[in-house]
Specification:
Elements (H helix, E strand, L loop, with lengths): L12 H32 L2 H7 L2 H12 E9 L4 E6 L16 E4 L2 E7 L2 E6 L2 E6 L3 E7 L4 E4 L9 E3 L4 E6 L2 E5 L3 E9 L17 H9 L10 H10 L6 H33 L7 H16 L2 H12 L3 H25 L3 H9 L4 H40 L2 H11 L3 H31 L2
Antiparallel strand pairs: 1-2, 1-12, 3-4, 4-5, 5-6, 6-7, 7-8, 9-10, 10-11, 11-12
Helix pairs in contact: 3-13, 6-7, 6-9, 6-11, 7-9, 8-9, 8-11, 9-11, 10-11, 11-12, 11-13, 12-13
């Protein structure tokens, strides 16, 4: 195609320059505005104060505790006794003839080999800690506190020498503490202690092959039940991990999400017909139905759960109601928009066959909105599985409540990790199931 250069408008150089300059200013001004906003939020949100108060060593301890456990070697000076226990618990105390191979106890004295050259010797009220590349630390417990003798030179950061308490942690997996009442050595090991069976269980310490052979054996440990039943019972009733209660709480969380989502879909679809312009001619009915949707979804799910907890008390029912109320507004709005976008020719075709109004909805409308209906309901079901955990933490029950209880003490952080991992697994399974259902119901695959 030929270009008519004779009749083409002649651009003023000044106009072109002003346009280029304006675009150049925008290119510079936009990053500057974003930078100024980030600087404002940095100080208005108190990020410097937050970083100043941060305790990275505390985070390191919690991270270590979530994947490892420690064995305490403790000498109680007032009673003049020596104890070796997992996590320092009385119900997980080793017998004198079953001590770990890295601990040697001689009466009320002990020698502890912490590995890689680290060793501790406890004699009477004196603790000697041999640290590679630093030297021998000698601490004596007195009636008023502790007396410390350190190698010459600067005091390392991992050592806290206080007249009331001595605390040394040269590595994350080794720690020694001395007060006037006790001497304590911590040795960390990877994994979760007593995960399968409690320390007192007669199945504790058995390997998988031993358990399998025991399950197939005709000789019963407990005459009242089979060995397989005993293994299952000992696992579920483990007092340290409470597997049975955790699984019940997970089931409650799933049921909470399922009941709430299905209830919202059950009420949201008929209300969507009242809010759709092409199905309800009354503007008043449409207005109040849409405002109902705004009211239900305008109040956050957590607020609804607090309201229902005050009304009905603690329990999964309050969580299911909170999910149902919030999602009725959200799904109702989505369904009404889907109804307004249907193809009326399909409805007219069904009408031409002499179908009544219910049949027109069934064969002319529902098939068109079914993909949206199924995909949105399944998506909300998957999302509500996560939301039910948060709602449960407020008191609605389920796995969320157990998660908060384990986090309050900051002692059994491995239990917190266990619950978090199970929650993630449930969300992944729900995602896979919802994806499979979408493919089956929508695509027919």
């Amino acid at each position: 195609m030929a270009v008519d250069t004779l009749n083409a408008p002649i651009l003023d150089p000044g106009t072109v320059f002003r346009g280029v300059r304006r675009r150049a200013w925008m290119t510079v001004a936009l990053p500057i505005a974003v930078l100024m906003y980030l600087v404002y939020t940095w100080f208005s949100f108190g990020v410097p104060d937050l970083l100043a108060k941060a305790q990275p060593e505390r985070a390191a301890l919690l991270a270590t505790d979530s994947v490892a456990y420690k064995v305490h070697v403790t000498k109680l000076l007032r009673r003049d006794i020596m104890e070796v226990a997992i996590e320092g618990e009385r119900r997980a105390t080793y017998a004198a003839d079953e001590l770990p191979d890295w601990v040697e106890v001689n009466g009320t004295d002990a020698a502890v080999d912490l590995g890689q050259g680290y060793s501790v010797t406890i004699t009477g009220k004196v603790m000697e800690f041999d640290v590679p590349d630093y030297g021998l630390i000698r601490v004596t417990a007195t009636n008023d506190g502790v007396r410390t003798e350190l190698p010459p030179g600067p005091v390392p950061d991992w050592l806290r020498d206080d007249p009331k308490k001595f605390d040394a942690r040269p590595t994350l997996d080794r720690r020694v503490q001395v007060t006037r009442t006790k001497i304590e050595v911590h040795n960390y090991f990877g994994g979760w202690e007593n995960f399968w069976f409690s320390f007192q269980s007669e199945l504790h310490g058995m390997s998988f092959s031993q358990l399998w052979a025991l399950a197939l054996s005709n000789e019963r440990i407990d005459p009242a039940q089979s060995n397989m039943s005993l293994i299952t019972h000992e696992f579920l009733d483990n007092p340290d991990w409470q597997h049975g209660e955790v699984f019940v709480a997970l089931f409650e969380t799933i049921m909470m999400a399922l009941l709430g989502t299905l209830t919202a879909a059950f009420f949201g679809l008929p209300l969507a017909f009242l809010a759709a312009r092409n199905f309800t001619s009354s503007s008043i009915v449409r207005f109040f139905t849409r405002r109902l949707f705004d009211f239900l979804r305008g109040i956050d799910m957590l607020i609804w759960s607090l309201i229902f907890i005050r009304a009905f008390g603690l329990g999964p029912l309050t969580g299911a109601l909170a999910i149902a109320f919030t999602d009725t507004g959200s799904l109702g709005k989505l369904f009404s928009e889907a109804l307004e976008n249907i193809d009326n020719r399909q409805v007219e075709g069904v009408r031409a066959t002499g179908a009544n109004q219910i049949q027109r909805y069934r064969f002319g409308v529902i098939p068109q909105i079914l993909p949206v209906f199924v995909s949105q309901v399944l998506y909300y079901l998957e999302s509500n599985t996560r939301s039910a955990t948060v709602i449960g933490a407020l008191g609605a029950g389920g796995i969320g409540l157990m998660l908060v209880e384990t986090m309050k003490t900051s002692r059994d952080w491995e239990n917190t990790s266990y619950i978090i991992i199970l929650t993630i697994v449930v969300v992944i399974v729900m995602d896979q199931i919802s994806g499979w259902l979408r493919r089956r119901l929508i695509e027919g695959k």
